[in-house]
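Sample pair:
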Amino acid sequence: MRSARPLVTALAAVVALGLSACGGGGSGGSSSSSSSSSQASSTGAGAAAANQCTKGKLKTTTPGTLTVATDKPAFPPYFEDNDPSNGKGFESAVAYAVAKRLGYAPGDVKWTTEPFNASYAPGPKKFDFDVNQISITPARAKQVDFSTPYFTAPQALVALKSSPAAKAASLADVQKAKLGVQIGTTSLDAVQQVVKPSSQPKVFNDSNDVVTALKQKQVDAVVVDLPTAFFLTAAQVPTAKIVGQFSAPGGDKWGALLAKGSPLTQCVSQAVADLRESGQLQALQQRWMGSAAGAPVLK
């Protein structure tokens, strides 16, 4: 998994992070391990008292205003038109949904710019929470708080538009295809446990080799995490397409980032949990990161 946003950082930097879900912590790679998950759970554990999670009771950076941060430029499908305040794009929509749960109208939300790498540095913050495709890792959680996850990255199948695999409408349609994947990743686990191809996938040592294999048609398709698939098809291999996405074991978890010990952490976590329980979070994910974004679900 990624620990940095592939659509924001330079191509070389992103490639170094890995095309798919990799173990690790800190800025070197996100973790889909149980330690990451448990950290997120403990950070947002416990339902905050309803009367404390209201606009009048929350101790925000600016009284009466909810200040939300993200990086600039802000790319789709997480933000649209480089304007986080328009409510369009997955993370923009999630931020406004959380704000509404906390009693803040859209006009009460103020956006500020925070570079990705600076967001999880220790110390005071000039925002109430940050949504910036930030992976929850134990190393980062020592320096900042995270809400309960609002997104767990699924896997995606990517193929050249000219490949027969690009026409697949289900996972069964690619079981006989020659698939490529990076070694030591949750994407490899996903291929073996979920796709279950009739022949062993072609395994590569690093992300550069995966990209090269796809470009040179050494494989019919590759499996990576969905956020990486968006970047791969937009910047690295524009002649490729996302055939579809599918759920699999593991997954890169993103959370809203807050200052360490923030009085808002439990309330933001509760808002995210409520959105998930109501089905709204899934609806937002499907709207902005599903078929409309070119990533239909494969079953």
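The mean pLDDT is 86.
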